[in-house]
Design a protein that fits this description.
The protein is an alpha+beta fold and about 110 residues long. The protein has one domain: 6-pyruvoyl tetrahydropterin synthase/QueD (Tetrahydropterin Synthase, Chain A, 2-Layer Sandwich), CATH 3.30.479.10. Helix content is about 25%, strand content about 40%. A hairpin with a 2-residue loop joins β4 and β5. The two termini are about 15 Å apart.
């Protein structure tokens, strides 16, 4: 099994829709760190699991310097974002989304 990891950084704003009062309901921004893990039993014809540039194009180009509420069709929590990112890349099996030093969410596909 081959595994690759890609690290992305994006700057983006969002506001959360919550069932309780929170300052996160106001528009605010983060410098997000995202780790994407992909794997394959066999390498593709180019000798890769997936091209790192393709991961960047699918994720960073859609999210960087955007208001996430305008480009994503869900409540933009770190957890929801991790799942969405994982779903964008067929070879992906795990994603970490870090919105600040102490706030990190993971999504990992079940077997």
């Amino acid at each position: 099994m081959y595994t690759v990891r890609k690290r992305l950084e994006i700057s983006a704003s969002h506001s959360l829709k919550l069932s309780y009062a929170s300052k996160c309901e106001n528009l605010h921004g983060h410098n997000w760190n995202i780790l994407v893990w992909c794997r394959a039993e066999k390498l593709n014809d180019d000798g890769m699991v997936v091209d790192f540039t393709h991961i960047k194009e699918k994720i960073q180009s859609k999210l960087d310097h955007k208001n996430l509420n305008e480009v994503l069709p869900f409540n933009t929590t770190a957890e929801n974002m991790a799942k969405w990112i994982c779903d964008q890349i067929p070879e992906c099996f795990k994603v970490m989304v870090q919105e600040s030093e102490n706030n990190i969410a993971w999504y990992e596909k079940g077997e």
